[in-house]
Amino acid sequence: MSVTSRTPRSRGGRSSSGHSRSRSSRDEVVQRTGDEGLSRQERKQRTRQALLDAALARLEDHSFGALSLREVAREAGITPTAFYRHFESMEDLGLVLVDESFRSLREMLRAGRSEVAAPGDEIRASVAILVRHVHEHRAHFRFIARERSGGSAGLRTAIRHEIRLFSSELATDLARYPILRDLPTADLQMIASLIVAMMVSAVESILDAPLDRPEVEAEIRATAEQQMRLIVLGALQWRAG
Q1: pLDDT (tens digit, 9 = 90+) per residue, 177-217?
Q2: Whole-number Å distance between alpha carbons of 35 and 26
């Protein structure tokens, strides 16, 4: 007696292959939600940014090493397998976050050039811009602050590299000021490195300051201004000596 071969069916009466196709269709719908009218490249970029934003949102309470690909994908509204269309791994996503974070820092530095109200106001204005930028990009700064010492070796290396680049750009920017323009390049780079180290410390203090205690932040700002003045004046005196 022959038995007709049949494809195994699920409890709902659908074949397993049909179920797979249905699930695949649902996955595609999830990825396309809200993307009507966008080109394929625009949809891809939107999903990529959603993954970056999802990771940053999770990093508010977790270190990067504690994040899983699955939870980031779920937060972004896509399936875990779709993640690999945008990033090779979680570390690859982390490296993009590092680049994105420091790109915003470089934009801050350039924007600051046009916000100095008067000669001699550079230090106060620079600290004010830094504090404002921390509040506008709090998640990025929190990510860098945590991962620069406690992250994976790849992320730590990338952050150190970006800090060096930022210091170099700051050194070039410092040469614009009359009080510093005659200093050798090596001295300008030293001053820039000290200022960046001070900025990192100030940023970490701002991130840890209670949001309902504005006087704490005011004290951090005042300290940062004093430290920056000491760095510049100390460098000038050291050079003169």
Answers
A1: 888 888 899 989 999 999 999 999 999 999 999 989 999 99
A2: 15
Taking CA atoms, 88 is separated from 10, 68, 82, 100, 162, in Å, by 34, 14, 11, 17, 21
With 50 as the cut, is the pLDDT of residue 3 above it?
A: no
Which run of H or E residues covers position 54?
helix 40-58
CATH class of domain segment(s) 90-237? mainly alpha
123's tokens: 């230090």
Q: What is the pLDDT of residue 189?
A: 93
Predicted confidence at residue 41, as pLDDT, reads 86
Enter the tokens of residue 204: 């970490």
Measured between alpha carbons, how far is residue 39 from residues 32, 45, 79, 99 in Å?
A: 11, 10, 20, 25
Compute the radius of gyration of the chain from its Cα atoms.
Answer: 25
Can you tell me the distance from the alpha carbon of 93 to that of 84, in angstroms, rounded to the nearest whole number?
A: 10
How confident is the prediction for the chain on average, in pLDDT?
81
- Neighbouring C-beta atoms of residue 53, cutoff 10 Å: 14
The CATH number of the structural domain formed by 38-84 is 1.10.10.60
The pLDDT of residue 34 is 56
Query: Running DSSP on this structure, what letter comes out for residue 15?
Result: B
Higher pLDDT: 17 or 112? It is: 112
Percent helix / strand / coil, the chain, rounded to 5:
75, 0, 25
Per-domain boundaries in the chain = 38-84, 90-237
